[in-house]
């Protein structure tokens, strides 16, 4: 069964709660790493890296990160070696994030899109798998440059 990590900052708690319920109603296992689930105040980069690390470690297959714009979460999650987090605000981007870029994490902006669009984006992203093909070489090149930075 698919296991998803979800995380948000204080700007996105309402959207996160609605997406969490949406996923649970689809019988998808979701673990919440959001700021409202932490014992002490936590900044969004901490949440993004925590979610990304759980995916890298194999605890979850995919992750959803939500902040005001999705930008900060995406930048932060992409600092974890081997993680590809994509900020998406339309269905085509959500589809291509998976099919072309094999993104394990989708990042959404609660101040940029509405909840119903967010649900559509999550559904689109979850329904897609990496196509491989001509995209394989490109994703491998991303990994190549990522590894070079860590020498």
UniProtKB/TrEMBL annotation:
One of its GO terms (molecular function) is ribose-5-phosphate isomerase activity. Gene3D superfamilies: Sugar-phosphate isomerase, RpiB/LacA/LacB. The keyword RNA-binding does not apply. Keywords: Isomerase. Its EC number is 5.3.1.6. One of its GO terms (biological process) is carbohydrate metabolic process. Signal peptide: none annotated. NCBIfam families: PRK05571.1, rpiB, rpiB_lacA_lacB. Belongs to the LacAB/RpiB family. This is Ribose 5-phosphate isomerase.
